[in-house]
Amino acid sequence: MSTYIDWRTPSSSPIEYTFPHPDRDAFITTADPQCDSLFFSLPPEIRKLIYVEFWRVSGLRQHIVSINPKDPVLPRTQPIPYDSEPHPRDSDMHFEGYIPPRVWAHVPCVTDPGKQDERYTKFTEAANGTQAKKVWASRLRSEWCGHWACEEPLAAQLLLPSATFLPVLLTSKRMYLESLPSLYSSLTFLFTDLPLTADFLTRYTPTLPLRSLELHIRATPLLTELYYPYSPAGPDPVSAGGHITMAHNPWARVCALLAQQPPPGTTTLHSLRIWFDTRDLRPWHKRVSETRLFAGLLGVRVLRKPRFLLELPELPVETRTASEGLEANHFFAGDAVLDGAPFTVVRGPRPNNWRVHFAGRG
Is the overall model pTM greater than 0.85, yes or no? Predict the structure, then answer.
C-alpha cells in the first residue's frame, strides 16, 4: 500500500488516501513460463538488451505529467503504467473549486540536458510589443522551466509519437515482470510539479531499481517564504497557522521521500538533478534561505556526489548586508559548507521576473 496526500482540497488539513500497488507476487506465481516462446529462449542478457532498445525508441528521458482524463489530448499520449484507480472520494467532492482527479501520462523530453537556457536572452533581444516578445515571455513563465519545447506540443494538442512502453508491459505477465526493472533502471524521469513528484515517489515500488530523476521547479513565493528566516520576534513558520508549514508542504514531502534509504539489496539513485527557481519578483538572495529551503536534501544519497546536482540562481558578487540580502550563512557558498553536502551546487543565470512581469502586462 502507498499513501497519496491531496494538497488541493480546501479542508483545514491535507487528506490522505491509500492505493494498492500491483500484486507482483501474484504475477510471479501465476505467470506462464512460455517455454515454447522463441523470445524467452534467448539468453537473459540478450533479452535485457532488447528491452533497452524498446525504451530507446520511445526516448530514455520522459516527463511524467498529470492530465485531466476528459482532455482531448489524453488519447494521444500513453498513460504511465501504474494502478490508476478512481479517486476514493470522487462522488463526495462537489464543492466549488474542486479539481477532478487526473491521470498520469508521459511526454518524451526533446530538450538537450546540456544546453544552456536561452529563454531570457531571446526575451531581451526581442523588440517590445512584438509577437516574439510575448512568446518568450510566456515561455519564461512556463512551469516546465527550460523544457518549454517539451510542453508546447502537449499544450497545442499535437499528435505525440507512439511509445513502446505499454505494448511491452502488456504482452504477458512474464514479460511485465522481466521488463519493468529494465524500464525503471533505463529511463530518466523528469518532473516539473512537486505534488506529482511526491505522488510518484510514494507509489514507486521500492524493489524496482529507480536510477535517474530530474526536478525542474519554479516555486511559488508562498513556498520559499515558509523558509524565510523570521526575526526572533516574528512568527515561527513551523508553527504558524494553517496546514502548509515549513515542515509540512509538498517540497518537504519530496525531500523526505528522496531521503528514504533504499531497502537492502536494491540500488540507490545513480543520478539526481534538481533545477530550482522562484516566481517571486524579488531577487533570490533577498528572500530565499538556501540552507533552510534545501536542508531536507542533506539526507539524500546518490551513488556519486558529482551525479547529484543542485542547480541554483547566481548570487551577487558583492558582500551581502541587511539591505542587500540575507547573510552569507543562508547560502551554499564556500568549501566549508559544500564539503559536507551530498550534492554539487551549480549556479546559473535566471530571468529577471520584474521585466517578464511587466512585459506580460503589456
Answer: no
